[in-house]
Structure formats: structure tokens, C-alpha cells
Amino acid sequence: MEHVFVTDSRGIGGRIKRRIADFQVQEVSKDGTLREIRVFTDTEKRELPKEWPSAERPAGREQLHLTLEKFNLDTNFAIQLIARMQGTSRKRIGFAGMKDKRGITCQRISIWQPDLERLKNWKSRYLDLREAEWREERIELGDLWGNDFNITIRDLEGTGTEEELRHAIETCFAQMRGGIPNFFGEQRFGGLRQTSHRVGREFVKGSIENGVMLYLTATAPGEEEDVALARKNLAETRDFSRASNEFPVKYRYERAIIHHLCKYPRDFVGAFKKLPKALTYMFTHAYQSHLFNEVLKRRLAEGIGLQPVEGDVLEDGIVAAPLFGFESKLAEGKPGEIERRVLEAEGVQLADFKVKAYAELSTKGARKKALLVPEDLRLLEIAEDDYYPGKRKARIGFRLTKGNYATTVLMELMKAEGNTND
């Protein structure tokens, strides 16, 4: 179903994430502390003076809290690098939320009983660790208020004068302050290939093999030629030994699955378990997110919108749409009809979310607010685009509470269908 926009301002178009520093994410802690980006730019890594606590931990304080700033790195991979440097399990490292890969991001992490000398002496081109202090508590997923975004939108062509562009942005901001559909952003669905929810659908339908093969072989325009060819060859031949030689080394997750299948060609569940647990859960969650988006789109397309109507389930007075699972209870009335039709269109039932062949992928279900209200929307700059000569760029900022996506705001502003990176 086509994307539905709720603001009537003229879309500004454009592209995001052309440069790494175009997408900056600063975590906001529960107490309101902003974890500021201070080290990375597109062209350099600044060296800041650092103070380290004593290696003798205060009684009862076994968790070292640090600020992690990263450049163009996936959160899971960053944690893996730190664990490898420490010579320890990644389970000892806690963090509050996943951050975008393509960008500069800053957040707090915790490490249980780390080797402090290794931390002091470690150097990385793509990571910086600082502001260390001993604490009692581990940082867990969800231990944050949200995130502050600073984003540059480039290649703004046909937007009229600078004043017309400014007017379009500020008009859209004014309308967004009343709330916009709380769609899950494109990164929830797997970046360039947008396959995560499709893999999740196969798992929910009970076909682990189809899901694993889709994860390994689905291609997308713009993917690097060598890996696209490796995926195509594997799809055609199902020769895992050949694939283990053809998949580039940096595709570590695919290679881990393929190496297992070289030894056990029918053990698709065991193969997928070679991925980090946190990653495997993402696929059924991505499918839930896809269905959530479809419910919101149908509500908008059929005219009931996102304000409460008879039969709705509410959370803090706001419509809560389903993240379907095997224990989900559907809404009543027209909202419930829409929820049922979304499931019927997909050919799935609630019971299917109890994945018998791979129990860890099962999900009970929940609900999520259907309306997102961005905070502190601000136009920071309109300038000539140094990346696209003759074009303009706009730099904007805003804050979102945890679990919400910057691309949701960007799509409404840009009036962009699908991937805003294009």
C-alpha cells in the first residue's frame, strides 16, 4: 500500500546520508543528559584529553559506564569489537539502544569488570570511549529517554527560493507538532536490501529454510557487485561450499550461516543460530513492524485516521496499534476489522507467531502508539550544497522518544516514498 502523508506542506525532496556526518544521533539519558558528539567529523577523529578512574573499584560498583562515540559502524559490530579488545564475552557489555550504522552516533554503554589498562591503551579509527565512571547498575535496553538528531538533507532541487524552502520546512514542522503517523523507519527492515520483514514473514509462516535462504540470497539495486553475484550464484546452485569462497569476508553473518550449512546442509535452524541472539530476534520484530505500518496506512486510507474511534485500544489516551503476536487481542469495531484484514491479506494468523520450529523467534505481541509527536523541531541551516554543486542543503534537528525513527519525520518532510537515501 502507498505511503500516506498527513501534512499538506510541499515536500522538499532531497537525499540523506550522502556523507557520514550528515546523520548524527546523540542519546538523551533518562535524566535529560545529552551524550554529545565531540570526536568525529567526516574527515578526522579529534583526540580529547581523558581521565580514567582508579582500577580499584568502589565496593559494589562492578560496572564501568562509558560514552561510546562511533563512526559508520553498526552497534552490534561496535560492541563485538569492544568485547574482542577486552578478551571477554559481549554479554558483559550493556547498552540502552541500537543506533544507526551510517552516521556518527553517541551513547552510554556499560562493561562488567573490564580490563581498565586495555581500555586506556586501545586505539580505534572508528570508535571512541571516554567519560568513564564506576557504577552499580548495568545499562539495559530501554534505559534512555530518546535521541537527539542532527540531519543534513542534500540535493534540494526545484525547491524555489531560499525563503520558499524555509517556508515549506517551517510549515511542515508546525503541522508535525500536532503528531504524525508513528511508522517504523526503513532501517527496521534491513537497510539497502529491505529484507528483514520478508525473512520474518517466512519464519512466522513456518518456513525456516525459505527465511534463511532469502536472507542469504536476496539482492538489491546498488549492492556491491561481488556480493550480489555471490547471492545470485547461491540462489541458483545452493552450493554452500562455493558460497563460502565467494561471499566477501566482511559479510560475517552470511558467512557464519554458510559455514554451518557446509557441514549440515539441512540444519537451517542451527545455521541461523550462528547469528547473535539480538540479531535473530530482529526478523520477526521487523515483520511485526511491517504489519503495524500496514494497519496505520489502512486507517488513514479508509478515513478513520489516528484519533480514537469506537473500538480502539488506547495508551495514555492515544490510539495503540498492534504489534501482532500469538497472545494479541484485536481491537473492536472498525479498528478491529482493519487489523483482521491486514492479517488476512498476509495469509497469517495470530497463532503463527508462536514459531514451533524455532521457539526463540516467537513473539507474544504488544501495542505501540500510533501517533508520534517530534520534539524541539528546528531548522538549523539552509546553505549551498558542497556535495551537489548548484543545489541547496538543509540541516534540521529534532528529538524523539525511544523506539521511534528519524526517517518517519524525514519522509513526512521530504514527501519521499520508501527509502529516503535514494
Q: What is this structure, in a nutshell?
A:
The protein has 422 residues and is α+β, with helices and mostly antiparallel strands. It contains 12 helices and 13 strands.
CATH class of the largest domain: Mainly Alpha
Rg, nearest Å: 23 Å
Based on secondary structure, the structural category is alpha+beta
Count of β-strands: 13
First-residue to last-residue Cα separation? 19 Å
Structural description of this entry:
- With 422 residues, the chain is of the alpha+beta class.
- It folds into 3 domains: 1-25 and 145-179 and 376-422, 2-Layer Sandwich (Pseudouridine synthase); 33-135, 2-Layer Sandwich (Alpha-Beta Plaits), CATH 3.30.70.3160; 185-372, Hypothetical Protein Yqey, Chain: A, domain1.
- It is built from 12 helices and 13 strands.
- Helix 4 packs across helix 10, helix 6 (225-237) runs antiparallel to helix 7 (240-246) and helix 7 runs antiparallel to helix 8.
- The two termini are 19 Å apart.
